[in-house]
Design a protein that fits this description.
Oligomer: single chain
Number of strands: 13
Distance between the termini: 36 Å
Bound molecules: 5-S-methyl-1-O-phosphono-5-thio-D-ribulose
Structural class: alpha/beta
CATH topology of the largest domain: Rossmann fold
Largest sheet: 7 strands, mixed
Length: about 350
């Protein structure tokens, strides 16, 4: 089973993104014709979700390469400087999800390791690499879904937070991918989706994806989760991750930490589902992860409607860190990581450098 919508697609030199700011009310595409459009799309959350912004940024590099094709023909050094500048602009669009920097690094290292004699060849190489990031992400999500489905008991009631579906990735999804896999393998699951304030990714996007996939579900306001967990109504919590530290601390959408503490208290299994590209091996623990703080209007004017007094001061971090002690496991495409997380994550790092 696959989605009927496309999250991101590069066609005829234009990057097409489904405009997630408008969902579920309108299904419209946002077109990016240069890398500045891509930077805007990521910063303004036309596209969001860690793997999705990584793949989107990769196409931003292709657009930059197209823009500076003439510079490539006259001076490869000057072109490399322009490419780096474009990557710096793209990387600054959102600071927390590591997939963004990971994808940009991969694009630059592809460029640096390939000797191209013409601009057309160079653009082709970068285009192919961006396509590879996109298609590998979908394949990775499908692999994680199969692995993750093994820990989903039949008839499970699952709680999820934010949006981790096809919209948050190049396609299929991470935690929502596991949920879809469990549903399509006829496990008779039921899903509670947190609305996920202040941007309502759960209400606007996850509820929409769950309904498209015909998965039995209910939308809840974020504050309901505690009651459901205490009352034994939740068998399993599955959510994504924007950056995983080397000790297994998981940075994810604001509200994740609160859920993890409740699950720890009431003994509910709590899993993060992430591709290995979301692990930042260079960060020892979650305290070092940069947390994006977004504008006050997200809280004071949800959906453009004023709900708070003029001039009120607001604290609006977009993410929080769940300590690894609260996690049952981290589901990846190379298997489920269980405690001790630090040792097991180090084994994955070593297998990548071999
Ligand atoms: O601010 P967002 O909507 O980009 O935050 C997204 C999340 O926190 C997701 O849970 C995370 O990126 C994992 S998505 C596969």
């Amino acid at each position: 089973m696959d989605e009927t919508f496309i999250t991101l697609e590069f066609r005829k030199g234009i990057l097409h993104l489904i405009d997630q700011r408008l969902l579920p009310v309108k299904e419209e595409m946002f077109l990016c014709s240069d890398y500045r459009d891509v930077e805007f799309a990521i910063r303004d959350m036309v596209v969001r979700g860690a793997p999705a912004i990584g793949a989107t940024a990769a196409y931003g590099v292709v657009l930059a390469a197209m823009e500076y094709a003439d510079v490539f023909d006259s001076s490869k050094e000057a072109f490399r400087v322009e490419l780096q500048k474009a990557c710096d602009v793209l990387e600054a669009s959102r600071p927390t999800a590591v997939n963004l920097a990971w994808a940009l690094r991969r694009m630059l290292s592809k460029y640096d390791s390939t000797s191209c004699s013409s601009a057309a060849q160079m653009i082709g190489v970068l285009h192919q690499e961006a396509d590879a990031i996109r298609s590998e992400d979908i394949a990775t999500n499908k692999a994680m879904s199969k692995i993750g489905n093994e820990i989903v008991p039949p008839n499970a009631t699952i709680l999820t937070h934010c949006n981790t579906g096809a919209l948050a990735t190049a396609g299929w999804g991470t935690a929502l991918g596991v949920i879809k896999e469990a549903h399509y393998s006829k496990k008779n699951i039921f899903v509670y989706a947190d609305e996920t304030r202040p941007r309502f990714q759960g209400a606007r996007l996850t509820a929409w994806e769950l309904m498209q996939a015909k998965i039995p579900s209910k939308l809840i306001s974020d504050s309901v989760a505690a009651t459901l967990i205490r009352d034994g109504c939740i068998d399993l919590v599955l959510l994504g991750g924007d950056r995983v530290a080397a000790n297994g601390d998981v940075c994810n959408k604001i509200g994740t930490f609160m859920l993890s503490a409740l699950c720890k208290l009431y003994g509910v299994p709590f899993y993060s589902v992430v591709p290995v590209s979301t692990i930042d091996f260079s960060i020892a623990s979650g305290v070092d992860i940069p947390i994006e703080e977004r504008e006050a209007t997200e809280v004071t004017h949800p959906g453009g409607v004023q709900v708070a007094p003029d001039g009120v001061e607001v604290f609006n971090p977009a993410f929080d860190v769940t300590p690894h002690q609260h996690l049952t496991g981290i589901i990846t495409e190379v298997g489920i990581i269980y405690p001790p997380f630090k040792e097991h994550i180090e084994q994955i790092r070593l297998s990548l450098v071999r």
